[in-house]
Amino acid sequence: MKIAIDIGHANNTGARGNGLEEHAVAVTIAECLAPMLRQLGAKVDVIDFPGMSNAQDLNATIKAANEGGYDFGISLHCDASDNPQAHGAHVCFYPGSVKGSRLAMCIAEPLSRLLPGRANTVQSRPGLAVLKRTRCPWVLCECGFITNPENAALMKDHPGRIAEAIAEGVKDYLNQ
Q: In Å, how far are 30, 50, 135 from 27, measured between CA atoms?
């Protein structure tokens, strides 16, 4: 089993809130998640192009994903909103991807239990390039709202708990 973890944005190109920046949060979650997935017996690569523009990062990520021989990939992101009360996690997949849908459902259950608040914790998203243009099943995890004080506190103080929820979902997916 070979899994890619994608840091969802280049450095300083993603969302900001509560003194946090999306790329830095995703890096910290990935640093916790990668060893957890390795303990499940997977080979894990972290895909990150921090010095590029956001568009360059996205294209380089898709290229790496399609050349890496991965069984599936997970992009790590943080939601943002003008409403600081908006909170909760959700996981996106490309419509029609049976494996992507199943992976998204498996991850969304523990992730949304940790970060509740979204009515729709699994979303089919046809317009997201990282889901549409990758050949292997791919999901995009919105690990809560960086603009919500409670979600941001979890990102800052307990990123390992977010990683544990994602790893629990991956384990469920692999055991099906």
A: 5, 10, 24
